Amino acid sequence: MKSLAITIRDIAREAGVSTATASRALRRLHNVDPATIARVQAVAERYDYVVSAAASRLAGGRTGSVAAITPYISRWYFSGVLSGVERVLQQAETDLLLLAAGDPDRVSRIPPIRHLARRVDGFLVLSLDPDSSALGGLLESEAPTVLVGTKWPGVPSVRIDDESAARLATQHLLNLGHRRVGMIAGRPGRSPFLAERARKRGFEAAVAGSLAGVGPPEVAYGDFTVDGGETAMNALLAQPDPPTAVFVMSDEMAFGAMRALRMHGLVVGSDVSLVGFDGHELAPMLELTTVVQPVADIGATAARMLLGRITDPGGAESPEIELQTQLVVRASSRPPRD
Amino acid sequence: MKSLAITIRDIAREAGVSTATASRALRRLHNVDPATIARVQAVAERYDYVVSAAASRLAGGRTGSVAAITPYISRWYFSGVLSGVERVLQQAETDLLLLAAGDPDRVSRIPPIRHLARRVDGFLVLSLDPDSSALGGLLESEAPTVLVGTKWPGVPSVRIDDESAARLATQHLLNLGHRRVGMIAGRPGRSPFLAERARKRGFEAAVAGSLAGVGPPEVAYGDFTVDGGETAMNALLAQPDPPTAVFVMSDEMAFGAMRALRMHGLVVGSDVSLVGFDGHELAPMLELTTVVQPVADIGATAARMLLGRITDPGGAESPEIELQTQLVVRASSRPPRD
DNA sequence: TTGTAAGCGTTATCAC
DNA sequence: GTGATAACGCTTACAA
Q1: How confident is the model at residue A291 (pLDDT cuts 50, 70, 90)?
Q2: Which residue intervals of chain B are DSSP H helices?
Q3: What is the pLDDT of residues B55-103, one digit of tens each?
Q4: How far, in Å, are A34, A54, A61, B6, B74 from residue A45 at the CA level?
Q5: pLDDT tens-digit readout, A92-115
Q6: What are the residues whose beta carbons fall under 8 Å from the beta carbon of B252, sequence distance 6 or more?
Q7: Cα A305 to Cα A119, A259, A297, distances in angstroms
Q8: How far apart are the CA of A189 and the nearest CA of chain B, in angstroms?
Q9: For residue A272, what are the contacts with CB-CB under 8 A and spacing of at least 6?
Q10: CA-based torsion, A22, A23, A28, A33: positive or negative
Q11: Chain A partners within 8 Å of B112 (Cβ)
Q12: Does residue A2 carry a pLDDT above 50?
C-alpha cells in the first residue's frame, strides 16, 4: 500500500525551506521568521496538508489526542459531560479517545496508564478517583491530567459543590416543614465516587442541623438507575414510618421513585415530596424539583484546562474549579399533608 | 525527554531473536515457529510490553483505533449505540476515537476523512449518510467502514427496519380504531437521516393502506427533542380537527407530547393515544407504547463487523444487517373515546 | 522459519 | 533564523 500522502518534505520543498524549518513553521514556533511561517502555512493550506500524528508522536512531539476515562458512556451525567468535552476538543483539533472503565466496583477494563500515555497527550478522568486500581499509575505518570466530578491533592479538577448542593436540597425539604426525610443514594457502604459521598454528607448535615423533631433518616439505594430508584422508594415505603420527603441523588432515580409512588397510589408532592439531582431534560415535564448542574459546561471547562496543561506544563498550579448549581423548585416538593 | 519505555528491541534481545521475528511473533503471524511465538509473548508479558501504536502505524501497520463519527453524543440513541461500540472495542483492545459532527443541517465540524484515515484503521458512521458533505471523501477512501442506522450501496451496515417498524406502530393505532392519526417527525422537508425518511414512509404506508374513513394525517415536527415534541403536539392540537392518535418518531419527543397533552388537560391514552419509538428507560414509567430497538446491540454488532473488515479486508461482501425491533404496548395507546 | 536493513514522517540537536 | 541529520519504534521486502 504505497502511501500517496504528501509529507512535510513536499511542503518544505514547495516552500523552499528545509523540513526542519517547515516543521517549526507549521507549529508556529517563535524562533521562525514570520514571513517563513506565512509562506509555509500557505503551502500547507494549499496542499491540504496535516502532519502525521504517528510520526510526530514518534519523533517526540504531540499525539494530538487526549483520553477521557469514564465509568459509563450512556448515563445522563456522563454523556452530557462528554458532549461538552468533545465540543472544545474539536475546536482545538484534538482527538478524543474514549475509554469506558465500567463500574468501579467491578474489575477494571482500562488498559494500564503507562500504555495509554504513549498514545495521548493527557487524561480527563470522570468521577473516578485517581487512586482507583482502575487508574493504576495515573498519579505516578507525569501525564497532564484533569479530574471531573472529583478531586485529588495536586491534581487540577472541575466539579460542583456536591455537599452544599445536597445540603440545600435537603434543607429545602426541611424548610417546607417535613420532619421525616429520607434519602435515596447510589449504593450502600462507602461509595467509590467522591460526589456521592459528598452528597451523603450534605444530606446528613442538613438533617443533623435541623430543628428538633426530625427523626433519623431512612436511606435506600438505587444504583443511579431508574429501576433502582423505584426499588429504593419501595423500600422506603415499606418502613413502619415512611418519610414524607426524600432527597434523591439523581434525577433518573427520582423518576423511578415517582413511579413507585404512583404504583402505591400516592401522589408526588402531596403525599411524598421529592427532590432530585442533575437537571435532566425530563425533570420539568415530570415536575421534579431538582439541583441543576451544568454538565456540558463542566466537560468544556475541564477540556480547556487540560489543553492548557498540555501546551503549558509549566503552570504548576492545580486549580480546583467549582461550577455553580441551582435548585429549581417544582411541584414534586411541597409542604407535608398535615 | 529520554524515553525509558522498553522497545521491541529489548524484547527481541531478551527472547534471543531479531526484532523482525519479535514483531512477527507479537502479531502471531502464521509463518513463525509456535515455540518462538510463545517465547516472545512470554517475554513481552513479563516486561509488560505493548507495541507503540505510533511507530507501528508509521511503519505501515495498524493504528489500533477506529473512529466513530456521530452527529450527537448525548442523545439517547447515540449514547446507547456508542456504549455498545465501546464494549466490543475494549475487548479487542482497540481505541475509540469519538468525533461529533453536529447537526447535519449545519456546517460540518468533521476534519476531512483523508486526514483521519491516517490516524485510524476504520470508520463507524452513525446515522449520517456517507455522501454527506460532512463525510467528504469517505466513500472514495478505501478505509474500512461500517454504517449504523443507515445504509449505502456497497457499504456494510447495521440497522433496524425503520419503515416496517413505523408501519406496525401506526397500524397498531389504526387497529385500535383511530381514524384521525397524526405524526410527530423530526423536521420538515427531506430529512438528512435515512431512518427518519423510512419512518415517514412507514407511517404513510400504514395510513394509505387503512380502511376508508381515515382522514389525511396531520404532521408536526419536534427535532427529536423533548421540548420540540411538546411544541409539535401543541401544533397538532391547534388543528381544527386534531388527531386522536399520534405516531411519534422518538420517545423523547413523545415525552414532550405527553407534557403538552397534560397542559391541555387531556389524558394520554384516553383523549389522545401515543406511540413512541426507541425503548427509552423512562417509557415504562410513563406508560408509553413504543417500538423498542436494541441500541447497544446495534453498536456492538457494528463494531464487530468493523473489526472483521479491518483484519480481513478481503471479505468483499458488504452485509446489511437488520436487527429486530419490538412494539411494546402500554397505556398510552388505547381505543378512541367514541 | 528467521535475520538484515531500509524505510515510515516527524521532531530535536547541533551547527552555521 | 535556518539547515543537516540523527533519532523515534516498528514493519516489511528481500535474503539466507
Answers
A1: very high
A2: 8-15, 19-26, 34-47, 53-58, 76-91, 113-116, 162-175, 194-208, 226-237, 251-263, 295-311
A3: 998 998 788 899 999 999 999 999 999 999 999 998 888 999 998 887 7
A4: 16, 20, 21, 37, 33
A5: 889 999 988 877 776 566 666 777
A6: A281, B75, B76, B224, B225, B226, B229, B278, B280
A7: 19, 40, 12
A8: 26
A9: A242, A243, A244, A245, A246, A261, A266
A10: negative
A11: 48
A12: no
The answer to whether the C-beta of A27 is closer than 7 A to strand C is: yes
Q: Is the CB of A58 under 7 A from strand C?
A: yes
CB–CB contact B74 A72 (8 Å): no
CA distance B268 to B327: 18
Asked whether strand C has any atom less than 7 Å from the CB of A246, the reply is no
Q: Cβ atoms within 10 A of the Cβ of A136, count? A: 16
Residue nearest to nucleotide D1 (CA to C1'): A32
Q: How many CB atoms lie within 10 A of CB B60?
A: 8
Residues contacting A124, CB < 8 A, separation 6+: A66, A67, A68, A69, A85, A145, A146, A148, A302, A303, A306
List, edge to edge, every strand of the sheet that includes A289-292: A218-221, A181-185, A245-248, A273-278, A289-292, A326-328
- Letter string b/e over residues A224-249, b meaning 16 or more CB atoms within 10 A of that residue's CB: bbbbbbbbbbbbbbeeeebbbbbbbb
User: What is each CA distance from A146 to A119, A153, A171, A265, B261, in whole angstroms?
Assistant: 17, 12, 32, 46, 45
Question: Taking Cα atoms as reference points, which of B296, B283, B284 lies closest to residue B250?
Answer: B283
8 Å CB contact of A73 and B83? yes
DSSP B158: E
| B318 close contact with A: CB closer than 8 A | no
Q: Which of B143, B128, B55 is nearest to A118 (CA)?
A: B55
Query: What DSSP designation does A137 have?
Result: T
Q: Write the residue in A72, A109, A255 that is nearest to B285 by C-beta.
A: A255
Distance in angstroms: CA A38, C1' C14: 26
Are the Cβ atoms of A109 and B118 closer than 8 angstroms? no
In terms of residues, how long is chain B?
338
Q: Which of B83, B93, B109 shows the shortest C-beta gap to A74?
A: B83
b (16+ CB within 10 A) / e for B170-204: bbbbbebebbbbbbbbbbeeebbbbbbbbbbebbb
